[in-house]
Design goal:
- The structure holds 2 protein chains of 2 kinds.
- Chain A has 2 domains: about 90 residues, Rna Polymerase Sigma Factor, Chain: A, CATH 1.10.1740; about 80 residues, Winged helix-like DNA-binding domain superfamily/Winged helix DNA-binding domain (Arc Repressor Mutant, subunit A, Orthogonal Bundle), CATH 1.10.10.
- Chain A has 8 helices and no strands.
- Chain B is α+β, with helices and mostly antiparallel strands.
- Chain B has 3 domains: about 55 residues, no CATH class; about 55 residues, no CATH class; about 120 residues, no CATH class.
- Chain B has 13 helices and 5 strands.
- Chain B has a 5-stranded antiparallel β-sheet with strand order 1-2-3-4-5.
- In chain B, a hairpin with a 7-residue loop joins strand 3 and strand 4.
- In chain B, helix 2 crosses helix 4 and helix 8 packs antiparallel against helix 9.
- Chain B is elongated and about 80 Å long.
- Classes of the chains: A mainly alpha, B alpha+beta.
- At the A-B interface, helix 1, helix 2, helix 3, helix 4 and helix 5 of A face helix 2, helix 4, helix 5, helix 6 and helix 7 of B.
């Protein structure tokens, strides 16, 4: 069934409104803004190409998050493994999060968190990004990840414990 | 009963309490268990801290403007036009996914790909080889154009099925006011071996046409993340030496990419 021009326009505008969240999600998965933007661009192209598969009334954000994650798994994992480490642009990633705190301490802590996130698996980062960064409920995250709520809970608990341990370890090394 | 208590004290339940995901009755019972157990209290603090750790770290995209190229993609991307540019495999995949019931499309596609792959390897142009054969297919591919269109200098981009990687090294505006990029072609498996060097310039239709390509003799060379003037006199270096004063800096290149290569 062909979509009307009006529906098409609404779909695209909803996608535009979602872009900041999609970029944040992709950034938390990749840790690199330019790479995140490439991922979001590819996901938008895929969504627009396959929009017939999107059921009206269902949640566009979940669909887009799932596309981004699948793209990351399918297309960029091998590339990122081979890619030399590119130091992240702190100013860009952290934005104004540094303002209003003791700068050095905050910077070290944020660096530690970003570095720890990089060491987690894609699945761990995905569940953290959905629940702890995007603020989804366990149920919403489960629907996005297409897994049972119990799986989300166990993955999330595991990912948070790993993240906490890595950040603590990093802090211990720098102190 | 012991099993129920264990369940209430599990990592998942403590975390769910911290996240406000439990119904009131379960929340009360887990809270009671935590109050009487210092180890569980520590665990609850740990789960709470992971949320505050991540707060704000990745929020820059929520505050800054969405790059123009992304907005343009969402507002103007035409999948039908793109489809007409797609290769035969993609079109076959779409055809099978429309025409055949599952899981027949997957099987049919596998058969077609195996057959086509065999013919391709036997008669067709092979992927990029150390001797440089296969370059033409790569530099005229959409993924190559996309890599030059979207990647800052120094980044290495895998070209997927083409078994090659490309890395833009320097960017400049030539005397015809075209944006051009000097790139390294890298071996698909080895991180640092450069197979060839080229310069591609951007046309009005966003196509990146390679104007000169130089195969690098079989030797190990390290990929560089920035352009260094060369002493040799091969065509690539000759052009680059001429354009040294027109090189754009990293910030200018990033801005151009964000603005879809418009502006100075």
């Amino acid at each position: 069934m062909k979509r009307s021009a009006g529906e098409e326009r609404v779909f695209r505008e909803e996608l535009v409104a979602l872009l900041p969240r999609l970029r944040r999600f992709a950034l938390s998965l990749t840790g690199d803004m330019a790479e995140a933007d490439d991922l979001v661009q590819a996901a938008c192209e895929k969504a627009l190409s396959q929009r017939k598969q999107f059921r009206a009334g269902s949640r566009l954000d979940r669909w887009m998050f799932a596309i981004i994650h699948h793209l990351l798994i399918d297309e960029t994992r091998s590339m990122r493994k081979k890619k030399p480490h590119v130091p992240f642009d702190e100013g860009r990633i952290f934005g104004r999060a540094i303002n209003g705190m003791k700068k050095l301490e905050a910077k070290l802590q944020l660096q530690g968190v970003v570095a720890a996130m990089r060491r987690l698996s894609d699945a761990d980062r995905q569940v953290l990004a959905l629940v702890c960064i995007d603020g989804m409920s366990y149920k919403e995250a489960a629907k996005t990840m297409q897994v049972p709520v119990g799986t989300v809970m166990s993955r999330l608990a595991r990912a948070r414990k790993k993240l906490y341990a890595l950040v603590r370890q990093d802090r211990g090394n720098t102190e | 009963m012991a099993t129920m208590d264990e369940h209430l004290c599990s990592d998942e339940m403590v975390m769910a309490l911290v996240d406000g995901e439990l119904d009131p009755e379960t929340a009360r019972r887990v809270s009671e268990a935590i109050e009487s157990d210092p180890a569980l209290q520590k665990k609850a603090v740990m789960f709470e801290q992971t949320v505050s750790m991540l707060e704000g770290v990745y929020d820059a995209p929520m505050r800054e403007e969405v790059p123009a190229h992304l907005l343009k993609t969402v507002r103007e991307y035409d999948p039908d036009r793109d489809r007409s540019k797609q290769g035969i495999f993609a079109r076959l995949q779409q055809f099978f996914s429309r025409q055949l019931p599952q899981p027949a499309p997957a099987f049919a596609l596998v058969v077609v790909i195996l057959l086509a792959g065999g013919l391709y390897l036997h008669y067709g142009q092979r992927p990029l080889q150390p001797d440089g054969s296969g370059v033409q297919a790569i530099v005229t591919s959409p993924s190559f154009a996309r890599a030059l269109e979207r990647s800052p200098d120094g980044r290495i981009v895998a070209l997927g099925a083409l078994h090659a990687r490309v890395s833009p090294v320097a960017t400049f505006m030539d005397r015809h006011n075209r944006f051009c990029r000097r790139y390294d072609m890298l071996a698909p498996e080895d991180d640092n071996r450069i197979i060839g060097r080229g310069i591609a310039c951007r046309g009005q239709e966003k196509e990146w046409r390679t104007i000169v390509y130089q195969q690098v003799p079989e030797q190990t060379q390290k990929a560089s993340s920035s352009y260094e003037p060369a002493a040799s006199d091969n065509p690539v270096d000759r052009i680059m030496n001429r354009e040294l004063s027109n090189l754009l800096n990293e910030q200018q290149v990033r801005k151009l990419i964000d603005r879809d290569w418009t502006g100075p």
